[in-house]
Write a structure and sequence with these properties.
The complex is a heterodimer of chains A (484) and B (95). Chain A has 484 residues and is an alpha/beta fold. In chain A, 38% of the residues lie in helices and 13% in strands. Chain A has 15 helices and 11 strands. In chain A, the strands form 2 sheets. In chain A, strands 4-6-5-10-11-9-7-8 form an 8-stranded mixed beta sheet, sandwiched between helices. In chain A, α4 links the parallel β2 and β3. The longest helix of chain A has 24 residues. The relative contact order of chain A is 0.14. By secondary structure, chain B is mostly helical. Chain B contains 3 helices and 2 strands. In chain B, strands 1-2 form a two-stranded antiparallel ribbon. In chain B, α1 packs across α2. The longest helix of chain B has 15 residues. The radius of gyration of chain B is 22 Å and the shape is flat. The two termini of chain B are 42 Å apart. The chains are: A alpha/beta (484), B mainly alpha (95). At the A-B interface, α9, α10, α11, α12 and α13 of A face α1 and α2 of B.
């Protein structure tokens, strides 16, 4: 049962092959059996899940089920969940129980889905290896000595180990696509503004976007159907019609124009990863796609610009953690300033403090123009590169990550080398474009992801392009031996 | 840009973060290396480029100036570290 996709499980529920309660129980059992090996969950909400499953079974019995009714899945622990702990991977929120639901969780509740728990993540989504979590690192199910990627490392590892059929994530600079690639599953980051950020703990508000981890593109489409849409409560939500993302999955790819940015295949890309990605592109040629070499000439500036914009926004967003209204508070503060400083100093981990300080510095008097304003101008250049590319091509492809999963501890003492593992994903966030990572093979026995970048609100096409590939290949069906 | 001990102390104060003395050299080193990465931006001429704040150049939506939120003070204060009579408690500010 655990290797089935959402589409298969939904069909089984509909036919009455099993109930949601049986399905949920079997995944909860797998979490109990296997999660001690990978640490992908921070909270398992067993009681809540079984109650939701029973309610879903009643809806199914009445014939009122929708596509995801009764399907178990996990939420990244960044989405506020009413009555269930939301830690964001931080000591700061160790005992935080949100008094309301995020819109994403609300939407899944409305769909009758079953939340089995909240997944581990880098603290406040800041990291590319899941090693900054206060609740311990996550192990990659393909090789426990390696990282699952980050920041949504727990969500990716849980789906890769088939502890849940699907999970949610957030992607600010690659935090869905990079862990999806490193764990050998399908990850989708929609267009900025497509999914509501309400109740999703903010890291960098102009970049953050919620998305999905699934086995297949078809499942991603089913998930996005529930998640996408305008929300009054998110001031940057875009009021645009939501199509049925499953409708165009099977469209023919003949004549599809695929752009390959030469900057994504140059120095820094592991040769074995490059070979696997090139083979995937050959597969698209066989399907009738046209390959066009393109250039995104300002790509090399994306990491530098991002590490001004994201920390600047984070230093502002995280100022709300003050030890006064919720979250961690230090013992016996001697005055108000001591309360602020020690609550934050003790409640945040190293990487979060580093980014807050970079942001505070970049925004401080006398430095704003040189850093923040400069970075926003560079952001414009990067965005214009994509605009020009999409005049010539329908989608852009390349590797998701320059290498396969790296060893735990390998980059944790060197922030800059860690930052560079998102070198192919960050530009997409700066431009606000949608992107996916699709499993496309293995290098040194570890999964490799093919990145597919689309134009604004072109998620249907991205999902179509990924789905057709998954109809002719079986990389997405591979799962790690130890979890079979 | 290389940051020294005084810079780190100043920034930590701006960000209201207590940093222990023994951690300062580590932060000075890592923050300096991040700034070095960031300064690759300086090689590009951006004089005639406008800054980009939102991917779709969207504007802040406006709405009628009416109350839309109900008062949930008691509910929200259930998770506060210290409250009394509906007020958040902090160390004494005024003598």
């Amino acid at each position: 049962m655990h290797s089935k996709t959402i589409a298969e499980l939904a069909a089984g529920l509909k036919k009455g092959d099993f109930s949601s309660e049986e399905l949920t129980t079997s995944f909860l059992q797998r979490i109990k059996q296997f999660d001690q090996e990978i640490n992908s969950f921070i909270t398992v909400s067993e009681e809540h899940a079984l109650a939701q499953a029973k309610a879903a079974d009643a809806i199914i019995a009445k014939g009122n089920a929708t596509a995801l009714t009764g399907i178990p899945f996990a939420q990244k622990d960044i989405f506020c969940s009413n009555g269930i702990k939301t830690t964001c991977g931080s000591k700061m929120l160790e005992n935080f129980i949100a008094p309301y639901d995020s819109t994403v969780i609300h939407n899944f509740n409305q769909a009758g889905s079953v939340m089995v728990g909240k997944t581990n993540m880098d603290e406040f989504a800041m990291g590319s290896s899941n090693e900054t979590s206060y609740y311990g690192g996550v192990q990659n199910p393909w090789d426990a000595s390696t990282v699952p990627g980050g920041s949504s490392g727990g969500s990716a590892a849980a789906v890769a180990a088939r502890l849940v059929p699907a999970s949610t994530g957030t992607d600010t600079g690659g935090s869905i696509r990079q862990p999806a690639a490193l764990c050998g599953i399908t990850g989708l980051k929609p267009t900025y503004g497509r999914v509501s950020r309400y109740g999703m703990i903010a890291f960098a508000s102009s970049l953050d976007q919620a998305g999905t981890f699934t086995q297949t593109a078809e499942d991603s489409a089913m998930m996005l159907n529930v998640m996408a849409g305008f929300d009054e409560k998110d001031s940057t939500s875009i009021d645009k019609e939501v199509p049925d993302y499953t409708a165009n999955l099977n469209s023919d790819l003949k004549g599809l124009k695929i752009g390959l940015p030469k900057e994504y295949f140059g120095e820094g890309l592991n040769a074995d990863v490059a070979k696997v990605v090139e083979e995937a592109i050959e597969e698209y040629k066989k399907m009738g796609a046209e390959i066009i070499e393109i250039s995104l000439p300002n790509s090399h500036l994306s990491v530098p610009a991002y590490y001004v914009i994201a920390p600047a926004e984070c230093s502002s967003n995280l100022s709300r953690f003050d030890g006064v209204r919720y979250g961690y508070r230090c013992d016996e503060p001697k005055d108000l300033e001591d309360l602020y400083k020690r609550s934050r100093g003790e409640g945040f981990g190293d990487e979060v403090k580093r980014r807050i300080m970079i942001g505070a510095y970049a925004l401080s008097a006398g430095y704003y123009d040189a850093y923040y304003l400069k970075a926003q101008k560079i952001r414009h250049l990067i965005s214009d590169d994509f605009k020009q590319a999409f005049e010539k091509v329908d989608v852009i492809m390349g590797p998701t990550s320059p290498e396969v999963a790296f060893k735990a501890g390998e980059k944790s003492d060197d922030p800059v080398s860690m930052y560079l593992s998102d070198i192919y994903t960050i530009a997409t966030n700066l431009a606000g474009l949608p992107g996916m990572s699709v499993p496309c093979g293995f290098a040194n026995s570890m999964p490799v992801g093919l990145q597919i970048i689309g134009n604004y609100f072109d998620e249907s096409r991205l999902l179509n392009v990924a789905h057709k590939y998954q109809q002719t290949t079986n990389w997405h069906k591979q799962m790690p031996e130890a979890f079979k | 840009m290389s940051l020294d001990k005084n810079d780190v102390e100043k920034i930590a104060h701006l960000a209201r973060l207590a940093i222990s003395d023994e951690d300062i050299p580590g932060y000075a080193k890592s923050l300096s290396s991040i700034l070095e990465l960031v300064e690759q931006m300086n090689a590009v001429d951006t004089d005639n480029i406008s800054p980009m704040a939102h991917p779709q150049d969207a504007f802040q939506r406006l709405r009628e100036d009416v109350v839309t939120e109900e008062n949930q003070r008691d509910h929200f204060q259930e998770i506060a570290p210290a409250v009394e009579n509906g007020l958040y408690l902090v160390p004494k500010v005024i003598e």
